[in-house]
Design goal:
Blueprint: H1 32-47, H2 50-53, H3 61-79, H4 84-107, H5 115-138, H6 142-153, H7 165-179, H8 183-187, H9 203-209
Length: 211
Amino acid sequence: MQQGQVQRGAQNEPIPGIFMIFGLFRKRNHNQIIVVRQYDALTSIARLPVFYTDYDVPDTVMGRFELLSAVMILFFRRTRSSETSGQELAQEIVDAFFEDIDYSIRELGIGDNSVPKRMKKLAGMFYGRLESYAAAMDGNDRSALAAALRRNIYPKAGEGAPSMIGLADWMMTAEAHLSGTAETEIATGSATLPQPPQIGKTASQIGEDAP
């Protein structure tokens, strides 16, 4: 997947590429509408320009992959304690995420023969991030989470990379928000994530501003 810059659009415009979702799902069971509703809600958060302007996420294809991966991981973690239907929903949403990525890779002009290898690599990256972020979040260690985000989002930047503490703070706030989400909201695909405030606010204010 190329890491070229993509021009940032107006705030109310969808970010192209990795977020093109409609029409991409295989024919599924009766949960398809729920899956689409929840997936759209999750990607809507990851579309917000504030992540790319204030939270040091690079506005590139891979930057979007990293941010959407983080959002998917948050939802995946919330549903691990859900009933079977909630866990199945989470898996279908992750499947939709990878269908989206597959579509985006092909839209970039990557040859069919190269797509499976790239998808395998990206899947490995996603589940590696799930493990590393989970370890930090289970320990309520925002510094460890920020360090993991920094390594993954800026793998070649070394000491010059942003600290990513703002994104780590938001993820901690989002996890707390999701933990209070009722099972009925999970079952109907209605779970939401808190809006990220402008990064100029303090870390404590990020938590205070969460709905």
